[in-house]
Amino acid sequence: MSRDIASAEELRAHYGTPKSTTELKRLDCLDVHCRALIAASPFVVLGTSDAAGNQDVSPRGDPPGFVKVLDDTHLLLPDRPGNKLLDSLQNVLANPKVGLLFMVPGMSETLRVNGTAEIVTDPDLLSACAVDGKAPPSGLKVVVQEAYLHCAKAFIRSKLWDASRHVDRGSFPTLGRMLADQIAGLDADRLDETVEEAYRTRLY
After folding, report:
1. Where do the domains of the chain lie?
2. pLDDT at res. 23
3. Whole-prediction pTM
């Protein structure tokens, strides 16, 4: 009969002790390798939670290096126009703790950064994040408390960058069709037209 793990002691006994080098790779600032990976990354996943612990994970993407390294312990993540639900930003107001996962296409190692964030709207600060002459409406200024390189095992297992394993997008319904199936009264074709128009004209 299976038995659930109910304590940190049981969990550690089940998995064993990490190697000393695994613990030592946790940095409290951004070194040259962290900076290089951030500069090459066009995609980051942002994890936040509200005061009650309700969690959210949000994808963020832009040209490589869109997340700016301000100094050894500060990052600036631009917030581009989106659906205006503002889940991540509202969470930061309630609970400033954030987690970031930086990815570089073709590279199976990733960079994890944990810290605290605040919402900034300073035009001088955000101007460095402008694309096509358009600065973001706000940004998250992140204080880095922990940064560490994550090994490639997950990407090796998933073969994420292997193009031969990529799905045929046509094997899934369009976004408009899926949303129309989920929300009664919506027109799938009209939704698809609206989405495509937004992709063309409202990325920034």
Report:
1. 8-158, 167-204
2. 87
3. 0.95
